[in-house]
Protein backbone atom coordinates (compact mmCIF):
# COMPACT_ATOMS: atom_id res chain seq x y z
CA UNK A 1 0.00 0.00 0.00
CA UNK A 2 1.36 3.43 -0.89
CA UNK A 3 1.76 5.51 2.22
CA UNK A 4 3.10 8.98 3.02
CA UNK A 5 5.66 9.57 5.75
CA UNK A 6 4.87 11.89 8.61
CA UNK A 7 6.58 15.26 8.77
CA UNK A 8 8.78 13.94 11.54
CA UNK A 9 10.08 11.15 9.34
CA UNK A 10 10.61 13.53 6.44
CA UNK A 11 12.72 15.70 8.73
CA UNK A 12 14.63 12.72 10.06
CA UNK A 13 15.76 11.43 6.67
CA UNK A 14 17.53 13.07 3.81
CA UNK A 15 15.78 13.71 0.51
CA UNK A 16 17.50 10.67 -0.97
CA UNK A 17 16.30 8.33 1.74
CA UNK A 18 12.76 9.71 1.61
CA UNK A 19 12.70 9.32 -2.16
CA UNK A 20 13.88 5.73 -1.96
CA UNK A 21 11.37 4.80 0.68
CA UNK A 22 8.57 6.34 -1.34
CA UNK A 23 9.67 4.46 -4.45
CA UNK A 24 9.78 1.25 -2.45
CA UNK A 25 6.27 1.79 -1.16
CA UNK A 26 4.73 2.51 -4.53
CA UNK A 27 5.49 -1.04 -5.54
CA UNK A 28 3.46 -2.46 -2.67
CA UNK A 29 -0.08 -3.63 -3.40
CA UNK A 30 -3.01 -1.61 -2.13
CA UNK A 31 -5.93 -3.36 -0.47
CA UNK A 32 -8.88 -3.34 -2.90
CA UNK A 33 -11.81 -1.08 -2.03
CA UNK A 34 -15.12 -2.75 -1.23
CA UNK A 35 -16.92 -4.06 -4.32
CA UNK A 36 -20.28 -4.38 -2.62
CA UNK A 37 -22.25 -2.94 0.25
CA UNK A 38 -20.24 -4.97 2.78
CA UNK A 39 -16.90 -3.20 2.62
CA UNK A 40 -15.32 -6.59 3.32
CA UNK A 41 -11.96 -7.67 1.96
CA UNK A 42 -11.92 -10.82 -0.19
CA UNK A 43 -10.93 -13.82 1.94
CA UNK A 44 -8.00 -15.88 0.77
CA UNK A 45 -7.79 -19.63 1.46
CA UNK A 46 -5.30 -18.86 4.23
CA UNK A 47 -7.73 -16.41 5.82
CA UNK A 48 -10.46 -19.04 5.72
CA UNK A 49 -8.46 -20.95 8.32
CA UNK A 50 -7.08 -17.81 9.92
CA UNK A 51 -7.95 -15.71 12.97
CA UNK A 52 -11.71 -16.07 12.65
CA UNK A 53 -11.68 -19.85 12.68
CA UNK A 54 -12.82 -21.10 16.11
CA UNK A 55 -13.12 -24.76 15.27
CA UNK A 56 -14.31 -26.88 12.41
CA UNK A 57 -17.91 -25.82 12.89
CA UNK A 58 -17.88 -22.04 13.41
CA UNK A 59 -16.21 -18.73 12.56
CA UNK A 60 -15.99 -15.40 14.39
CA UNK A 61 -17.02 -12.22 12.57
CA UNK A 62 -17.10 -8.54 13.44
CA UNK A 63 -19.97 -6.83 11.65
CA UNK A 64 -21.24 -3.27 11.59
CA UNK A 65 -24.45 -2.13 9.93
CA UNK A 66 -26.69 0.95 9.95
CA UNK A 67 -30.45 0.74 10.59
CA UNK A 68 -33.24 3.21 11.17
CA UNK A 69 -33.63 4.14 14.84
CA UNK A 70 -37.18 2.80 15.09
CA UNK A 71 -38.78 0.16 17.31
CA UNK A 72 -38.27 -3.34 15.94
CA UNK A 73 -35.27 -2.61 13.70
CA UNK A 74 -32.80 -4.41 15.96
CA UNK A 75 -35.23 -7.29 16.46
CA UNK A 76 -35.46 -7.73 12.69
CA UNK A 77 -31.67 -7.96 12.45
CA UNK A 78 -31.46 -10.48 15.25
CA UNK A 79 -34.19 -12.61 13.70
CA UNK A 80 -32.39 -12.60 10.34
CA UNK A 81 -29.15 -13.72 11.98
CA UNK A 82 -30.92 -16.38 14.01
CA UNK A 83 -32.42 -17.70 10.81
CA UNK A 84 -28.88 -18.55 9.67
CA UNK A 85 -27.95 -20.11 13.05
CA UNK A 86 -25.70 -17.16 13.94
CA UNK A 87 -24.99 -16.46 17.62
CA UNK A 88 -24.65 -12.83 18.75
CA UNK A 89 -21.77 -12.77 21.26
CA UNK A 90 -21.77 -9.02 21.85
CA UNK A 91 -23.55 -5.91 20.61
CA UNK A 92 -22.73 -2.20 20.75
CA UNK A 93 -25.01 0.55 19.47
CA UNK A 94 -23.82 3.93 18.17
CA UNK A 95 -26.73 6.42 17.89
CA UNK A 96 -26.60 8.72 14.84
CA UNK A 97 -29.78 10.80 15.04
CA UNK A 98 -32.36 9.11 12.87
CA UNK A 99 -30.10 6.07 12.36
CA UNK A 100 -28.17 3.72 14.63
CA UNK A 101 -24.95 1.88 13.87
CA UNK A 102 -25.09 -1.61 15.39
CA UNK A 103 -21.77 -3.39 15.90
CA UNK A 104 -21.88 -7.16 16.42
CA UNK A 105 -19.45 -9.90 17.35
CA UNK A 106 -20.89 -13.03 15.75
CA UNK A 107 -20.26 -16.75 15.83
CA UNK A 108 -21.48 -18.19 12.56
CA UNK A 109 -21.43 -21.67 11.01
CA UNK A 110 -18.15 -22.18 9.18
CA UNK A 111 -19.98 -22.90 5.94
CA UNK A 112 -21.76 -19.53 6.03
CA UNK A 113 -19.97 -17.02 3.76
CA UNK A 114 -19.68 -13.32 4.59
CA UNK A 115 -21.81 -12.53 1.53
CA UNK A 116 -24.65 -14.65 2.92
CA UNK A 117 -24.47 -12.74 6.20
CA UNK A 118 -24.57 -9.33 4.56
CA UNK A 119 -27.43 -10.34 2.26
CA UNK A 120 -29.45 -11.49 5.25
CA UNK A 121 -28.74 -8.24 7.09
CA UNK A 122 -29.66 -6.16 4.05
CA UNK A 123 -32.98 -8.00 3.75
CA UNK A 124 -33.65 -7.12 7.40
CA UNK A 125 -33.06 -3.40 6.81
CA UNK A 126 -29.32 -3.07 7.36
CA UNK A 127 -27.33 -0.79 5.08
CA UNK A 128 -23.70 0.25 4.65
CA UNK A 129 -22.76 -3.10 6.17
CA UNK A 130 -19.12 -3.88 6.91
CA UNK A 131 -17.79 -7.26 7.98
CA UNK A 132 -14.40 -8.85 8.67
CA UNK A 133 -12.95 -11.84 10.46
CA UNK A 134 -12.59 -11.52 14.23
CA UNK A 135 -10.27 -13.35 16.62
CA UNK A 136 -10.15 -14.34 20.27
CA UNK A 137 -9.11 -10.82 21.35
CA UNK A 138 -12.50 -9.54 20.20
CA UNK A 139 -14.22 -11.78 22.76
CA UNK A 140 -13.24 -9.32 25.50
CA UNK A 141 -16.17 -7.00 26.15
CA UNK A 142 -15.77 -3.35 25.16
CA UNK A 143 -15.55 -1.77 28.66
CA UNK A 144 -12.88 -4.26 29.74
CA UNK A 145 -10.90 -3.68 26.56
CA UNK A 146 -11.06 0.11 26.91
CA UNK A 147 -9.94 -0.08 30.54
CA UNK A 148 -7.00 -2.27 29.52
CA UNK A 149 -5.96 0.19 26.82
CA UNK A 150 -6.25 3.07 29.29
CA UNK A 151 -3.99 1.21 31.73
CA UNK A 152 -1.36 0.62 29.06
CA UNK A 153 -1.50 4.28 28.05
CA UNK A 154 -1.18 5.38 31.66
CA UNK A 155 1.98 3.32 32.15
CA UNK A 156 3.76 4.31 28.94
CA UNK A 157 3.30 7.40 26.73
CA UNK A 158 4.51 5.42 23.71
CA UNK A 159 1.40 3.23 24.00
CA UNK A 160 -1.04 5.94 22.90
CA UNK A 161 -0.84 5.31 19.12
CA UNK A 162 -1.04 1.55 19.70
CA UNK A 163 -4.00 1.93 22.06
CA UNK A 164 -5.84 4.06 19.51
CA UNK A 165 -5.21 1.47 16.80
CA UNK A 166 -6.50 -1.39 18.96
CA UNK A 167 -9.48 0.70 20.02
CA UNK A 168 -10.47 1.68 16.49
CA UNK A 169 -9.42 -1.35 14.45
CA UNK A 170 -7.55 -1.27 11.15
CA UNK A 171 -6.44 2.35 10.78
CA UNK A 172 -3.45 4.58 10.09
CA UNK A 173 -2.22 6.87 12.87
CA UNK A 174 0.25 9.72 12.40
CA UNK A 175 1.63 12.25 14.87
CA UNK A 176 2.56 15.62 13.39
CA UNK A 177 4.59 18.05 15.49
CA UNK A 178 3.49 21.66 15.76
CA UNK A 179 6.91 22.77 14.46
CA UNK A 180 8.60 20.13 12.29
CA UNK A 181 12.35 19.68 12.61
CA UNK A 182 14.15 20.70 9.44
CA UNK A 183 11.26 22.80 8.13
CA UNK A 184 8.25 21.51 6.27
CA UNK A 185 4.56 22.11 6.71
CA UNK A 186 3.44 22.64 10.29
CA UNK A 187 0.46 20.77 11.68
CA UNK A 188 -2.81 22.56 11.08
CA UNK A 189 -4.59 24.01 14.10
CA UNK A 190 -7.09 21.64 15.67
CA UNK A 191 -9.59 22.77 18.32
CA UNK A 192 -9.38 21.33 21.81
CA UNK A 193 -12.43 19.14 21.17
CA UNK A 194 -10.88 17.67 18.01
CA UNK A 195 -12.36 17.24 14.55
CA UNK A 196 -14.33 14.27 13.18
CA UNK A 197 -14.67 14.04 9.39
CA UNK A 198 -16.19 10.77 8.21
CA UNK A 199 -13.23 8.33 8.02
CA UNK A 200 -10.69 10.79 9.53
CA UNK A 201 -10.39 12.17 13.04
CA UNK A 202 -7.91 14.83 14.17
CA UNK A 203 -7.03 15.21 17.82
CA UNK A 204 -4.85 17.81 19.49
CA UNK A 205 -1.71 16.14 20.83
CA UNK A 206 -0.66 17.02 24.40
CA UNK A 207 2.58 18.63 23.20
CA UNK A 208 0.77 20.88 20.71
CA UNK A 209 0.91 18.83 17.53
CA UNK A 210 -1.85 16.84 15.86
CA UNK A 211 -2.71 13.15 15.99
CA UNK A 212 -4.46 12.08 12.79
CA UNK A 213 -6.38 8.79 12.63
CA UNK A 214 -7.64 7.52 9.29
CA UNK A 215 -9.59 4.34 8.61
CA UNK A 216 -10.30 3.25 5.04
CA UNK A 217 -13.90 2.61 3.98
CA UNK A 218 -15.46 2.71 7.49
CA UNK A 219 -16.58 6.05 8.98
CA UNK A 220 -15.91 6.73 12.65
CA UNK A 221 -18.94 7.10 14.90
CA UNK A 222 -19.31 9.82 17.55
CA UNK A 223 -18.93 7.12 20.21
CA UNK A 224 -15.57 6.03 18.81
CA UNK A 225 -14.49 9.67 18.55
CA UNK A 226 -15.39 10.24 22.21
CA UNK A 227 -13.41 7.15 23.29
CA UNK A 228 -10.36 8.26 21.31
CA UNK A 229 -10.54 11.77 22.80
CA UNK A 230 -10.72 10.26 26.29
CA UNK A 231 -7.49 8.29 25.71
CA UNK A 232 -5.70 11.38 24.38
CA UNK A 233 -6.93 13.44 27.34
CA UNK A 234 -5.65 10.78 29.74
CA UNK A 235 -2.26 10.91 28.04
CA UNK A 236 -2.18 14.71 28.31
CA UNK A 237 -3.10 14.74 32.01
CA UNK A 238 -0.41 12.23 32.96
CA UNK A 239 2.42 13.98 31.11
CA UNK A 240 5.70 12.40 29.91
CA UNK A 241 6.33 8.90 31.28
CA UNK A 242 8.09 5.67 30.35
CA UNK A 243 8.69 2.42 32.25
CA UNK A 244 11.93 2.66 34.22
CA UNK A 245 12.88 -1.01 34.40
CA UNK A 246 16.35 -1.97 33.24
CA UNK A 247 18.50 -5.00 32.48
CA UNK A 248 22.20 -5.36 33.28
CA UNK A 249 23.99 -7.53 30.71
CA UNK A 250 27.54 -8.84 30.51
CA UNK A 251 29.24 -8.62 27.11
CA UNK A 252 31.44 -11.50 25.87
CA UNK A 253 34.64 -9.65 26.89
CA UNK A 254 33.29 -9.18 30.41
CA UNK A 255 32.05 -5.56 30.37
CA UNK A 256 28.67 -4.85 31.96
CA UNK A 257 26.12 -2.67 30.19
CA UNK A 258 22.65 -1.52 31.19
CA UNK A 259 19.74 -1.51 28.73
CA UNK A 260 16.68 0.59 29.52
CA UNK A 261 14.04 2.76 27.91
CA UNK A 262 15.07 6.32 27.05
CA UNK A 263 13.20 9.55 26.40
CA UNK A 264 13.86 13.26 25.96
CA UNK A 265 15.33 13.40 29.46
CA UNK A 266 18.32 11.54 28.03
CA UNK A 267 18.86 14.07 25.26
CA UNK A 268 22.20 15.45 26.48
CA UNK A 269 23.71 12.00 26.96
CA UNK A 270 22.57 11.02 23.47
CA UNK A 271 24.12 14.16 21.98
CA UNK A 272 27.37 13.40 23.78
CA UNK A 273 27.39 9.98 22.11
CA UNK A 274 26.89 11.68 18.74
CA UNK A 275 30.01 13.75 19.39
CA UNK A 276 32.03 10.58 20.00
CA UNK A 277 30.73 8.86 16.85
CA UNK A 278 32.60 9.10 13.55
CA UNK A 279 31.10 10.87 10.55
CA UNK A 280 30.80 7.50 8.81
CA UNK A 281 28.80 5.96 11.68
CA UNK A 282 26.43 8.93 11.87
CA UNK A 283 26.06 8.94 8.08
CA UNK A 284 25.11 5.26 8.08
CA UNK A 285 22.37 5.96 10.62
CA UNK A 286 20.90 9.27 9.47
CA UNK A 287 21.43 9.10 5.71
CA UNK A 288 22.02 12.84 5.46
CA UNK A 289 24.33 15.67 6.55
CA UNK A 290 26.12 14.69 9.75
CA UNK A 291 25.55 18.18 11.16
CA UNK A 292 21.79 17.57 11.16
CA UNK A 293 21.95 14.45 13.33
CA UNK A 294 21.53 16.27 16.67
CA UNK A 295 18.41 18.07 15.44
CA UNK A 296 16.55 14.77 15.06
CA UNK A 297 17.27 13.43 18.53
CA UNK A 298 14.52 15.27 20.41
CA UNK A 299 11.88 13.73 18.13
CA UNK A 300 13.49 10.31 18.02
CA UNK A 301 13.58 10.19 21.82
CA UNK A 302 9.97 11.35 22.21
CA UNK A 303 7.59 8.53 23.24
CA UNK A 304 5.01 10.13 20.94
CA UNK A 305 6.75 8.67 17.90
CA UNK A 306 7.82 5.29 19.24
CA UNK A 307 10.06 3.61 21.79
CA UNK A 308 13.79 4.06 22.34
CA UNK A 309 16.24 1.77 24.09
CA UNK A 310 19.57 3.11 25.35
CA UNK A 311 22.70 1.18 26.27
CA UNK A 312 24.59 2.70 29.22
CA UNK A 313 28.06 1.97 30.55
CA UNK A 314 28.81 1.88 34.31
CA UNK A 315 30.43 5.32 33.90
CA UNK A 316 27.11 6.83 32.78
CA UNK A 317 27.69 7.10 29.03
CA UNK A 318 25.20 6.13 26.33
CA UNK A 319 27.01 3.96 23.78
CA UNK A 320 24.04 2.64 21.80
CA UNK A 321 20.52 3.68 20.80
CA UNK A 322 17.78 1.58 19.28
CA UNK A 323 14.54 3.10 18.00
CA UNK A 324 11.17 1.50 17.27
CA UNK A 325 9.29 4.20 15.34
CA UNK A 326 5.57 4.27 14.59
CA UNK A 327 5.35 5.25 10.90
CA UNK A 328 1.66 5.44 10.04
CA UNK A 329 0.56 1.80 9.96
CA UNK A 330 4.14 0.53 9.59
CA UNK A 331 7.00 0.22 12.07
CA UNK A 332 10.65 1.15 11.56
CA UNK A 333 13.68 -0.07 13.50
CA UNK A 334 16.91 1.94 13.63
CA UNK A 335 20.22 1.39 15.43
CA UNK A 336 23.23 3.51 16.34
CA UNK A 337 26.24 2.09 18.22
CA UNK A 338 29.28 4.19 19.11
CA UNK A 339 32.37 3.24 17.09
CA UNK A 340 34.44 1.91 20.00
CA UNK A 341 31.57 -0.35 21.09
CA UNK A 342 30.75 -1.85 17.71
CA UNK A 343 31.34 -5.55 17.07
CA UNK A 344 30.43 -6.57 20.64
CA UNK A 345 26.85 -7.70 20.04
CA UNK A 346 25.18 -4.49 21.24
CA UNK A 347 23.37 -3.85 17.97
CA UNK A 348 22.06 -7.41 17.87
CA UNK A 349 20.88 -7.15 21.49
CA UNK A 350 19.03 -3.91 20.75
CA UNK A 351 17.47 -5.28 17.57
CA UNK A 352 16.23 -8.43 19.30
CA UNK A 353 14.57 -6.34 21.99
CA UNK A 354 13.01 -3.92 19.50
CA UNK A 355 11.55 -6.82 17.53
CA UNK A 356 10.18 -8.30 20.75
CA UNK A 357 8.54 -4.94 21.47
CA UNK A 358 7.06 -4.85 17.98
CA UNK A 359 5.60 -8.32 18.43
CA UNK A 360 4.16 -7.31 21.81
CA UNK A 361 2.62 -4.25 20.14
CA UNK A 362 0.93 -6.42 17.50
CA UNK A 363 2.97 -5.19 14.53
CA UNK A 364 2.89 -7.34 11.38
CA UNK A 365 6.41 -6.37 10.28
CA UNK A 366 9.32 -4.04 10.90
CA UNK A 367 11.61 -2.39 8.38
CA UNK A 368 15.07 -0.87 8.52
CA UNK A 369 16.40 1.85 6.21
CA UNK A 370 20.15 1.70 5.76
CA UNK A 371 22.85 1.77 3.10
CA UNK A 372 23.79 -1.27 1.08
CA UNK A 373 27.34 -0.95 2.43
CA UNK A 374 26.16 -1.23 6.06
CA UNK A 375 27.04 -4.90 6.46
CA UNK A 376 26.53 -4.76 10.23
CA UNK A 377 22.86 -3.79 9.97
CA UNK A 378 22.26 -6.29 7.20
CA UNK A 379 23.84 -9.05 9.30
CA UNK A 380 21.78 -8.06 12.34
CA UNK A 381 18.53 -8.24 10.37
CA UNK A 382 19.51 -11.60 8.87
CA UNK A 383 20.38 -12.84 12.35
CA UNK A 384 16.76 -12.45 13.44
CA UNK A 385 15.90 -15.63 11.57
CA UNK A 386 12.75 -14.03 10.14
CA UNK A 387 11.50 -13.78 6.53
CA UNK A 388 13.15 -10.74 4.94
CA UNK A 389 12.31 -8.59 1.91
CA UNK A 390 15.00 -6.40 0.34
CA UNK A 391 14.41 -3.26 -1.74
CA UNK A 392 17.29 -1.09 -2.93
CA UNK A 393 17.20 2.32 -4.60
CA UNK A 394 20.20 4.53 -5.33
CA UNK A 395 22.31 2.77 -2.70
CA UNK A 396 19.64 2.99 0.03
CA UNK A 397 18.49 -0.40 1.26
CA UNK A 398 15.12 -1.11 2.90
CA UNK A 399 14.91 -4.45 4.69
CA UNK A 400 11.48 -5.61 5.89
CA UNK A 401 11.11 -8.47 8.37
CA UNK A 402 7.79 -10.30 8.74
CA UNK A 403 6.75 -11.02 12.31
CA UNK A 404 4.32 -13.88 11.77
CA UNK A 405 6.73 -16.81 11.85
CA UNK A 406 8.29 -19.23 14.31
CA UNK A 407 11.46 -17.14 14.33
CA UNK A 408 9.68 -14.44 16.32
CA UNK A 409 9.28 -16.76 19.30
CA UNK A 410 13.01 -17.45 19.20
CA UNK A 411 13.72 -13.70 19.16
CA UNK A 412 11.46 -13.20 22.15
CA UNK A 413 13.19 -15.95 24.09
CA UNK A 414 16.59 -14.37 23.41
CA UNK A 415 15.43 -10.92 24.46
CA UNK A 416 13.44 -11.77 27.59
CA UNK A 417 10.49 -9.68 28.64
CA UNK A 418 10.27 -6.58 26.38
CA UNK A 419 8.85 -4.42 29.13
CA UNK A 420 11.94 -4.94 31.28
CA UNK A 421 14.06 -2.91 28.88
If you had to describe this structure to a student in words, what would you say it looks like?
The chain has a five-stranded antiparallel sheet with strand order 9-10-11-12-13, with helices on both faces. A four-stranded antiparallel sheet has the order 2-3-1-4, covered by helices on one side. Strands 5-8-7-6 form a four-stranded antiparallel sheet, covered by helices on one side. The chain has 14 helices and 16 strands. The N terminus and C terminus are likely disordered. With 421 residues, it is an alpha+beta fold. It has three domains: 95 residues, Alpha-Beta Plaits, CATH 3.30.70; 83 residues, no CATH class; 175 residues, Aminopeptidase (3-Layer(aba) Sandwich). Helix 6 runs antiparallel to helix 7 and helix 7 packs antiparallel against helix 8. The protein is elongated. 33% of the residues lie in helices and 27% in strands. A hairpin with a 2-residue loop joins strand 12 and strand 13.
Radius of gyration: 23 Å
Look at the structure and give the mean pLDDT. 79
Major sheet: order of its strands? Answer: 9-10-11-12-13
Beta-strand fraction estimate: 25-35%
CATH superfamily of the largest domain: Gcn5-related N-acetyltransferase (GNAT)
The helix/strand order is HHHEHEEHEHHEEEEHEEHHHEEEHEHEEH
Number of domains: 3
Largest sheet: 5 strands, antiparallel
> Portion of residues in helices?
25-40%
CATH architecture descriptor name of the largest domain: 3-Layer(aba) Sandwich
By DSSP (H or I, 4+ residues per run), the number of helices equals 14
| Low-pLDDT residue spans | 1-51, 411-421
Per CATH, the class of the largest domain reads Alpha Beta
Distance between the termini: 32 Å
Q: Which term fits the overall shape? A: elongated
Amino acid sequence: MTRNLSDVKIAALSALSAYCKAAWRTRRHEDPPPTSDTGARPSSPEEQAGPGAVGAQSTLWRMRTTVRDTPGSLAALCSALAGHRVDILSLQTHPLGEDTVDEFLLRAPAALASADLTHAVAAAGGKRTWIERADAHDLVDAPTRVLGLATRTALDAAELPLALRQLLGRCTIRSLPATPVGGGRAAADVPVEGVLEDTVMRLRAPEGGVITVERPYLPFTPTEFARARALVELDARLGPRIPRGQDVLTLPEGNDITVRRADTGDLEAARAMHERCSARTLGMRYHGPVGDADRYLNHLLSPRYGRTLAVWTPSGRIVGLGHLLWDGDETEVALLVEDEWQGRGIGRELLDRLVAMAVEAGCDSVYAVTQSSNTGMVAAMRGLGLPLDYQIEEGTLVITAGLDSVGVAESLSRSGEPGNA
